[in-house]
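Friendly challenge for the regulars: who can give me the structure tokens for this chain first? No prize, just bragging rights.
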Amino acid sequence: QVQLVESGGGLVQAGGSLRLSCVASGSIFRINRMGWYRQGPGLQRELVADITSGGSTNYDDSVKGRFTISKDNAKNTVYLQMNSLKPEDTAVYYCNAEGPLYYWGQGTQVTVSS
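First reply, four minutes later:
Bragging rights claimed.
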């Protein structure tokens, strides 16, 4: 089993920044990819960015150049640095870990005011 705990969400004005953190615990040796997803009001959950165990990254077009995913293996933590935030980035952000199974965190709310 893998447990994921997110933090760092909040309320920010458009153009501002936030950094989300996701700490993984448990059978983390089984993880080969971690990512951040988001789900806006009335919308489906969508991939924002992910990072493989080898460090390769992937971003949704809507966040390229504004968001950066990174990881600290020593801390078992994945980060999502979000800059130049827009009101349309408002969503619940979920951390995801992929191994033999998919694991999800509880989510953290990000609200961007115009």
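DSSP finds no helices and eleven strands in the chain. The two ends are 40 Å apart (CA to CA). Your move, everyone else.
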